[in-house]
Every structure is written in C-alpha cells, then in structure tokens.
Amino acid sequence: MDCEGYCQYKSNPEGCTVYSLRKDCFSKKQKVMTHRMWEKYKDIARKNKLMATRKKLYKVRGSTIERSFADAKGIYGYRYARFRGMKSVQMQAYLTTACQSMKKIALHLTKKGLVAGYFYKVYDFIWFSFTKIKKDYRLLGIPKGFPTICNLSSAFSGNT
C-alpha cells in the first residue's frame, strides 16, 4: 500500500515468460494493477445491494430517508446556512434535527392514539422560538451566531 491509499499488485516477470497467452494478457514486461484500499468494501456493498431484502429497502428509501433530507432542505432551511461559523451552523443542524425527531415522535404517537397534540405544541413552540430569534437577533442585542439559553429567556421577556 502506498501513501495515497492505493494497493498495487505486480506480476512476476520471470513467471510470465513461460505463459503462452502472455501477449493477450499484457503487452509490457510487468503488469501492475492498482486498487483503492477500500475497494473490497465497495464490492461487498455492491453484492449486498443486489440481495432481495436490500432491493425492497432501496424502494422504500425514497419515502423515508430521502424524504427526511427533502424536508430538511425545503422546510427547515438546510438549503442555506443561516449563520456563519462551524459552531453556529452545527447548532442550527442540531436544533433542526431535534425538531424533525420531535415531529416524527409526535406523528407516531398520534397515529397510535397515545397523545393528542401535546408534542405538536412543544414542537411548534421550539420552532417558533428558533425562527423568532433568528429574525430578531439584531434587535434583541444577541451577538451573531446561534442563540444561547440565556438569550432565549431574554427573547421572550422583551429585555435586550
């Protein structure tokens, strides 16, 4: 394995001289095959993709995983970063993911008849809080970036 992550396999030039179909196999003195170090894992993934159970899961993917990404991009603002800096964008991602998870839990519980709207109220409150602070952070005196817990309390009390 070389420093760039490639595995090189070289043929033995002395052993190939006796081989009668050598000209069909390769034209130079020595043949070198190069593979990435994770090529075997890609082969395993390709084999798994062709299994019957994997094909069924792949058909469902569009309505589950891809739907979640589409919601994040379209509804929750993943199309553009609202803040600047790694920590601020990471906090936006955490809050958005938490909101998506709460929505999923609320939908699941309401389908089972275990709760009637309580989680929706919590979800709406958190999402409203996030969007209100995002829009009014300059008016509230909150520094640029994701609001902290201290800033959340001042946002709803009207203090700056």
Automatic annotation (TrEMBL):
Residues 12-105 form the Transposase DDE domain. It comes from the Bacteria. InterPro entries: Tnp_DDE_dom (IPR025668). This is Transposase DDE domain-containing protein. It comes from Bacillus thuringiensis serovar pingluonsis.
